[in-house]
Here is the input.
Amino acid sequence: MKAYKSMISSSDTVHGISPRVSSYEEVRERRTRRTTGILGKAAVFLILLLYAVCLMLPFYVLFVTSITPYQELMGSMSFIWWPQEVTWEAFVPFISTDNILADDIGVPILHGFLNTLWSTLLTTTVSLFVSGLAAYCYSKIRFKGKEVLFMFQLATMMIPMATMTVPSLLWYETLGWTHSWFPIIIPGLFGGATTIFFLRSYMASVPNETLEAAKIDGLGPFRIFLKIVFPQAIPAFIAQFIFAFVGGYNNYMGPLLYLSDDPQNYTLQLVVTELRTFYNQPGQVCASCLIALVPLIIVYVIFQRFFIEGISIGGGKE
Amino acid sequence: MERIAAGRLTLDLHRKKKFSGEKAFAYVCVSLPLIGFILFSLVPLAISFISMFTTMEYYDLSTMTWNEFETFKIVFSDQDLYKSLLVTVMLASSQFISLTVALFISFLLSKKPRGRKIFQILYFIPYICSSVATAYMWMTMFDPNYGIINTFLVGLFGEGARVNWSSDAAAYAIAIIITIVWQASGYGIVMYKAAFDAVNPSLYEASEIDGASAWKKFWRITFPSIAPTTFFLLMTGIIAGMQTFDIARLFAVSFFPDAWTGTAGPGNIGLTTVMFIYNKGTLYFNIPEASVASWILFVIILTLSLINYRLRKRWVNV
Here is the structure.
């Protein structure tokens, strides 16, 4: 209010549109605002820094514990910020063939990583492709019964199938699929309702004129999808890919139910949990966690823009 | 006459050709996800539903026999079920803590402090960490002897403040909640950040002219603008929290090597409903009992989803 008043009074001066003459009050107010501004900024920065340190602390603990000798750790009654003698021994069973399961899985972390990678990439890619095609049809092709089918597809989103994970064992046992990759992979190949819904709303922005022109040029629907719709919806696909990939990489319950009885089938997360039976020293547990975490964190840091954008656009539209 | 008939014939042919192309394509694409839903959601749902009224051996459908609601009687007289529901609600309500932290931190981030970008990248890292690694790293943090948490507590309040996190029920619950909050708040921060960025800046300018204080600005402008995000995060968070399994089970298995019996912490304080279901289904091979508990959870979550859907719809319309 004060600033507003002084502005009026300053424009009343002889020069009319001359440089504003600030009143005493205004100068004082501005000065106090600036000092609280700087103090406030520093406080904000410090709180954010403190929070970041708290969040990152577990990673430091993980690292230090993994390089601390077992004896030193067991004899200590407080946290060891840095070991007297650094040892990398805890990593050995996981990154070499010097382990009890070597006959089955060779280098455990590598074996688990490859299993996780192929299974996750396969389901994620196929699922995205199938969902993308369905989304394209729902958004750009006219066909009888479209509204009814889409309503049905939407309704499936409401069904909390996650609660049925354990009872589903019955169905997969009947199919003879337990103790195999099928329950992890096959259901995922048919696409997902949430993905379809999200991709569909994104594809709505692809101009119909372009598609009509392509149709006149004689392009079939599949090629229109591949050459026109897909390239324009790539950000949406990346967002969904990241969701699905992180979910698959970190999946614990699925592999636990179906893959944990055969070391050959261990995924990365199972390597960490199952090898704990044999290597349960704190350093070894921390070492295996650390190696399992690093690949995804590196990918995240490189592509963090896509992660964060993907999460914020993906989540908001669900 | 003949000419008209011929014209109609070519028209029909044209239509047919169009159908065999684009529309057939659309039906195929759209039906794939629906087939997947029927095969891997509806069928298991139906089987699980039927199994509730039967007794069976192992996972063998052919041994199913009608048992006059015996399964329901057993499950509903199981005190563990009620306890697990309470535990689950308690863990799900830790969402309120995650959300408050996320709101506060992203509010500070919206003040555009130095290093904002890097903070944001760091804050999201816990969210992409697997629950396996998260559980193990926090177990190390909570170790009674060399754990960093106890080191801080002892340093601040003396030796008497040392907590045995795995033998005291309240401490065990707090440990799980801290772990869950650590992992979950990153998602909230990203979503809130997007919401803060989307607040109409002219509203702030208008209120500044009116001389509104920062406090008033937050409650009158910012808070209402981000209310839909808050609601979305709360609902999805509670729905996810109701299905807590990974952290609860990993804590149980790691702190108590004899957890194959299904115990989860002192006085079963870490026994979530999904863990109850998992124990019934895989440790006791009793899918009918697991199904009853699954359907209870199914109904609860379906109700929450419907409320979420309804209210969101109203919100968007307003």
Observations:
- Residues 9-13 of chain B have pLDDT under 50 and may be disordered.
- The two ends of chain B are 58 Å apart (CA to CA).
- Chain B touches chain A through 98 residues (CB under 8 Å).
- The CA atoms of residues 40 and 235 of chain B lie 26 Å apart.
